[in-house]
Design goal:
Layout (H helix, E strand, L loop, with lengths): L8 H7 L3 H9 L16 H33 L2 E3 L2 E3 L2 H12 L18 H14 L1 H8 L3 H8 L2 H13 L3 E4 L15 E4 L5 E11 L5 E7 L10 E7 L5 E6 L10 E14 L5 H38 L1 E2 L2 E2 L4 H38 L6 H40 L9 H9 L9 H13 L2 H10 L8 H23 L3 H30 L4 H23 L14
Parallel strand pairs: 3-6
Antiparallel strand pairs: 1-2, 4-5, 5-9, 6-7, 7-9, 8-9, 10-11
Helix pairs in contact: 2-10, 3-4, 3-5, 5-6, 5-9, 5-10, 6-9, 7-9, 9-10, 9-11, 9-12, 10-11, 10-16, 10-17, 11-12, 11-13, 13-16, 14-16, 15-16, 15-17, 16-17
């Protein structure tokens, strides 16, 4: 039986990044929790050993029962009866195993029953879970909603709900509606305050992942007569109080173990979370950023599974007297799959470390005033996290889909049959570039970091890191590509045409993302030569992509937009 943590040395490589020491020291408040909790770490080595042990437990469960249950869960799926959603038998078993192993509420503080993990090892666990069962990661990973509760709820609400999450109760975020998908400003579920000051919710929510969960975070319209985001607030709904029924669950292409529900709220009691009017403007934005990092981790887990399935099949399948992995057409596909996997993983954990840094400083600021240096560092990492999150989610999910596609292609006709896991992988992968903000919306979020120079500054930092002689040729290529990227950015931005910028945004974002991931792989290769081949392959990929996009941009005039149906 495989252990999905120990069989993948790349995870340990990313866990042991140099920035982790500062992250852990800040998270543990210089290890003062050791005085209050006998299981809290006394020093950095102790903390890292604790993360390793928990990740080994995650890896063991995922390589065992959760992966074994995945096929049966996919066939049985979730069901709906009498206004309730019911998990597949394997999902019930999976949740029970995770509860007994203490893997719920991993990133929550110890005083609420959590493990006080930084975001990075928690996201690593999410990747491992996704590799085992992509749909189950949705249910297990929604414990991340507790982070929003912790950040914006009252101390009374934290004490009331977070321990329940740490004990294994499930969560959901009820945002979308039949007429409000990506446009959350159009949410109309009504929140009404009664004379005694309490709130009730009425309306319908749709496409709600794990919609029959125990604890819901609900976006609702609290201000009478409003029609935009300023009239929305965030609420906590407790299933124990009743008032919400499941009208139906969606019959989906993939992730069938994760019930996607349509919910009907009828005078459902709820608690206001945080302040009125900030539901969308502040709280949902924070909630969505966490969710997007989770989908990026989910995407990497699917990419890992797709690559392994394809590689194993290529080793075993023989044609014309030899294994198909010996044919250049197949070996190239596998090398590119591995490069996309490694690149998206490096970006994922670079992003998660940036999120860790600014989130920890935000938490410290709840306890005491930050110094000027700490405030500056928090602002710096917050900007970097804001820049890398849409790249990690957008590009990582696209690579995930491409790897799932190539996994089937390497299997040939067999990959089209349900006898092999790649058919399920392909269906599960498709949603990653759609939910929690489509790839197109991630481009919208990312383009301002192109125009303001955030990506250019980060690329410059990576370029100045210094690389050994064997990597110098790759670094030189990336230097040339950076010049081409900067010229493309200048040409588009100097046109001062918003529609032209929107049209070219995807190309500019892909160029920036490719350069960032290529440099991250160079850094990986500098520390671990096992990344050398991946660094070469991905740099060649980046070279081709930047050449294609820069050529398109340099030979395109704004007046040609009309050919694409875009008016001046």
């Amino acid at each position: 039986m495989a252990n999905f943590y120990t069989d993948n040395p790349d995870l340990r490589h990313h866990l042991n990044h140099p920035l982790m020491q500062k992250i852990v020291e800040l998270r543990e408040r210089n290890y003062t929790d050791a005085e209050k909790f006998d299981y809290a770490p006394a020093n950095f080595a102790d903390a890292m050993d604790n993360y390793e042990k928990v990740l080994e437990i995650v890896g063991d469960l995922c390589g065992g029962k959760i992966a074994e249950n995945a096929e049966a869960v996919d066939h049985q799926g979730a069901s709906c009866a009498n206004g309730r959603a019911y998990y597949a038998d394997g999902t019930v078993e999976n949740l029970d195993l995770c509860r007994k192993a203490g893997l719920m509420g991993m990133a929550m503080p110890r005083r609420f029953g959590g493990l006080n993990f930084p975001i990075t090892p928690y996201i690593m666990a999410a990747e491992i879970v996704s590799r085992a069962d992509t749909g189950f990661e949705n249910l297990w990973g929604l414990q991340d909603c507790a982070e929003t509760l912790y950040e914006f709820g009252s101390e009374e609400q934290r004490a009331k709900y977070i321990p329940r999450v740490c004990e294994g109760e499930t969560m959901s975020m009820d945002l979308t509606e039949p007429d409000a998908g990506s446009d959350l400003q159009s949410v109309m579920l009504k929140a009404t305050q009664k004379e005694d000051g309490t709130w009730v919710l009425n309306g319908v929510k749709r496409f709600i992942t794990n919609g029959d969960s125990d604890i819901h975070l609900v976006l609702a319209r609290s201000e009478e007569g409003t029609k935009d985001g300023r009239g929305l607030s965030m609420f906590i709904y407790d299933k124990r109080n009743g008032g919400v029924t499941v009208r139906r669950i969606e019959n989906k292409m993939g992730i069938k173990g994760s019930p996607t529900c349509e919910l009907v709220y009828k005078n459902a009691p709820a608690e206001l979370c945080g302040n009125r009017r900030l539901g969308l403007i502040k709280y949902v934005m924070a909630l969505m950023n966490g969710a997007r990092l989770g989908i990026a981790a989910q995407s990497v887990g699917v990419s890992e599974l797709a690559y392994r399935e394809a590689h194993q099949y290529a080793l075993e399948r023989r044609q014309f007297g030899k294994a198909i992995i010996e044919f250049p057409a197949v070996s190239e596909m596998l090398a590119v799959m591995k490069a996309k996997l490694d690149a998206s993983r490096s970006l994922l954990y670079e992003c998660s470390r940036f999120v860790d840094m600014y989130k920890i400083y935000e938490d410290i600021a709840r306890e005491r005033s930050l110094t000027a240096d700490e405030r500056a560092e928090m602002k710096h990492y917050s900007r970097l996290a804001d820049a890398l999150t849409p790249l990690a989610k957008g590009l990582g999910s696209e690579y995930c889909n491409q790897n799932a596609y190539d996994c089937i292609q390497i299997h040939g006709g067999s990959g089209f049959m349900k006898d092999y896991a790649c058919e399920r992988i392909y269906r599960d992968a498709r949603i990653t570039s759609i939910y929690e903000g489509t790839t197109q919306l991630q481009v919208v979020a990312a383009i301002r970091h192109v125009t303001t120079g955030t990506y250019a500054s980060l690329i410059k930092t990576y370029a100045e890191a210094g690389y050994p002689a064997q990597l110098a040729p790759l670094a030189a290529i990336l230097g040339d590509l950076t010049v081409a990227y900067e010229k493309a950015v200048a040409k588009v931005t100097e046109a001062n045409n918003s529609k032209y910028l929107d049209f070219m945004a995807r190309r500019l974002v892909e160029m920036a993302g490719s350069l960032i991931m290529a440099y991250l792989l160079l850094q990986d290769a500098k520390d671990d030569e096992s990344f050398n081949n991946t660094a070469v392959v991905y740099t060649k990929m980046a070279q081709a992509l930047v050449a294609q996009h820069s050529d398109f941009i340099s030979n395109f005039a704004p007046e040609q937009l009309s050919a694409y149906g875009i008016g001046e």
